């Protein structure tokens, strides 16, 4: 599985961005697709995930109420809609995939940079 993230950019605080993660290869129904981010000088952190089958989601507290993760099965693409962005959301965002809910994330995209100016 290969993942290609896109959609990052520079936005003012309060603005919105939609990140996309296009997956190529075989995506099985058990897969879980996730978004992570890494801010300068900080460790990578979980943002959200979505189960490929059923579409159940989970969010980190930092994004609850502002971020929405979704998927398009036909396009094998996962999205992260980010609203009400804050300067502390500035980071490189990575999409990732794991085979099952209990496995480690096996596949990672290259990252897309999000900068939120105050």
Helix segment tally: 0
Structure class: mainly beta
Number of strands: 11
* Radius of gyration over C-alpha positions, nearest whole angstrom: 13 Å
The best one-word shape is: globular
H-E order: EEEEEEEEEEE
Strand content: over 45%
Termini separation comes to 37 Å
Largest sheet: 7 strands, mixed
Poorly predicted runs: none
- What is the mean predicted local confidence, pLDDT? 96
Helix content: under 10%
Overview of the structural elements:
This protein is an all-beta fold. It is 0% helix and 53% strand. It contains no helices and eleven strands. The strands form two sheets. Strands 2, 4, 5, 6, 9, 10 and 11 form a seven-stranded mixed β-sheet that branches. Strands 1-3-8-7 form a four-stranded antiparallel β-sheet, with no helix packed on it. The protein is globular. The termini are far apart.
Topology:
Elements: E1 2-6, E2 9-12, E3 17-24, E4 32-38, E5 45-51, E6 57-59, E7 67-72, E8 77-82, E9 91-98, E10 107-108, E11 112-117
Parallel strand pairs: 2-11
Antiparallel strand pairs: 1-3, 3-8, 4-5, 4-9, 5-6, 7-8, 9-10, 9-11
